[in-house]
């Protein structure tokens, strides 16, 4: 009856001879104020899990564009990249354009998990429903990767003795599962309605300290296994390619602990054509989507989750949001520079996509924050660009990725190259096949068909 800030008058009539009970009446002199107004004002930017259940939906077009850009480059690379070396994966240490796209995709998964879970929680989706959804998505990604994308007709008759177990979609599925469980367990924490200046500076960090503890422990595990695990006939902490590398001193040590763990776990069910095989003449199998690398894939996805938290907490303050994006880019870029000593082979931990080394993840995190921030300014903030044509494959990423992987060796997406020594035909074929998939995504966008799992 009585609410905060209101002013009331109350009259109590004493009992009389005819009426032995007291009579109480009241009047409102001044209406109460809305005590929850500060919460309602702060909630949209700092506590998204407690917003009004039916707000106006705004899709972050820059995120779809970033996803589509990454996927388009990935398709072009997988279609040969015009035969140029910088569109091929680095043989071992180092960085090329081809090495950029998968970490970007993992980063986007992390950001999407935060934004999607926030949206579903606002719609009243229960934790059980969230768990079912993430389990379904994980299983579908694992099955798609294992049953459809790990085998090509050009590999010859299928044999379970050599069928590859790890893979790109398997890694993405596992990473998505871990990130989603983290978000369910620790990512739905409320933020105080009235935030002091000091609290405002860390409101995207401190409420989620259990996630940070988990990630630090995970990275500590990677460091301990990488540098302390005894590998037979190999020096501790070896990060080289083996073969004739390092003057042929460690020919059977390809990948160090990472390769050893994968060979022990999977045997011959690994990738048979690692990028180091031709240059370093290696004889040991090595899988770039192995177990240790998947640990750092989760770390990469966590950086994307941090970007998502920044977007939710500071979207009403673009300067704050972009400043934090830039700060993360500087910290991660500096970390990568220190770990690699700005060299290809001479650093403490070289930048290496095959190993998904810590310096590689830090470097890719730097690029991801810069790219997402730049696209946010150009697309969502200023409206200078609508994200076309990359936004189309970005909104149908599963269909484009699986489709280009299954049909990439068939006409009209590719054909037999007649002029092997020329880049022209290779470049045209790569651009043609990639453009066809962008066109397919555009037509599906027009039909409002989006393949979701």
From TrEMBL:
Q: Establish whether keyword Transmembrane helix is in the entry.
A: yes
Per UniProt, the keywords (alphabetical) are: Membrane, Transmembrane, Transmembrane helix
Coiled coil regions in record = none
Tell me the leader sequence span. none
TM ranges are: 66-86, 92-114, 134-153, 168-187, 208-229, 291-314, 321-339, 359-379, 391-415, 427-445
Q: Does the keyword tRNA processing apply?
A: no
What PANTHER family does its record include?
A: HEPARAN-ALPHA-GLUCOSAMINIDE N-ACETYLTRANSFERASE (PTHR31061:SF34), LD22376P (PTHR31061)
Name the chain's protein: Heparan-alpha-glucosaminide N-acetyltransferase
Q: Organism, per UniProt?
A: Muraenolepis orangiensis (Patagonian moray cod)
């Amino acid at each position: 009856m009585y609410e905060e800030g209101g002013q009331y008058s109350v009259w109590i009539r004493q009992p009389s001879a005819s009426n032995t009970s007291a009579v109480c009446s009241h009047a409102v002199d001044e209406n109460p104020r809305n005590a929850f107004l500060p919460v309602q004002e702060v909630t949209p930017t700092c506590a998204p899990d407690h917003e009004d259940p039916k707000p106006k939906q705004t899709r972050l077009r820059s995120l779809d564009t970033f996803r589509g850009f990454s996927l388009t480059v990935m398709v072009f690379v997988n279609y040969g990249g015009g035969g140029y070396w910088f569109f091929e994966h680095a043989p071992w240490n180092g960085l090329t354009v081809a090495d950029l796209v998968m970490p970007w995709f993992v980063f986007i998964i992390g950001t999407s998990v935060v934004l999607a879970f926030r949206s579903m929680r606002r719609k009243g989706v229960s934790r059980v429903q969230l768990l079912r959804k993430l389990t379904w998505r994980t299983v579908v990604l694992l099955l798609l990767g294992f049953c459809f994308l790990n085998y090509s007709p050009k590999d010859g008759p299928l044999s379970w003795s050599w069928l590859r177990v790890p893979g790109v979609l398997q890694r993405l599925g596992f990473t998505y599962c871990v990130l989603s469980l983290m978000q369910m367990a620790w990512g739905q924490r409320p933020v105080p309605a009235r935030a002091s200046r000091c609290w405002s500076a860390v409101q995207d960090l401190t409420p989620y300290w259990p996630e940070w503890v988990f990630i630090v422990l995970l990275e500590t595990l990677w460091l301990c296994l990488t540098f302390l695990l005894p590998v037979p006939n190999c020096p501790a902490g070896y990060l080289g390619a083996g073969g004739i590398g390092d003057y042929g001193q460690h020919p059977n040590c390809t990948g160090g602990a990472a390769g050893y763990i994968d060979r022990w776990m999977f045997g011959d069910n690994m990738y048979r054509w690692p990028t180091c095989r031709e240059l370093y003449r290696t004889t040991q199998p090595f899988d770039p989507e192995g177990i240790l690398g998947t640990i750092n894939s989760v770390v990469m996805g966590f950086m994307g989750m941090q970007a998502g938290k920044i977007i939710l907490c500071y979207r009403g303050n673009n300067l704050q949001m972009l400043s934090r994006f830039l700060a993360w880019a500087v910290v991660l870029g500096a970390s990568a520079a220190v770990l690699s000593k700005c060299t290809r082979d001479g650093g403490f931990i070289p930048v290496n996509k095959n190993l998904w080394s810590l310096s590689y993840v830090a470097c890719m995190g730097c690029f991801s924050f810069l790219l997402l921030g730049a696209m946010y300014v150009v697309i969502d903030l200023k409206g200078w660009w609508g994200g076309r044509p990359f936004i189309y494959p970005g909104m149908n990423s599963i269909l484009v990725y699986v489709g280009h992987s299954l049909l990439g060796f068939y006409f009209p997406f590719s054909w037999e190259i007649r002029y092997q020594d020329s880049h022209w035909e290779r470049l045209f074929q790569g651009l043609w096949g990639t453009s066809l998939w962008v066109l397919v995504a555009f037509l599906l966008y027009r039909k409002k068909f989006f393949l979701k799992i």
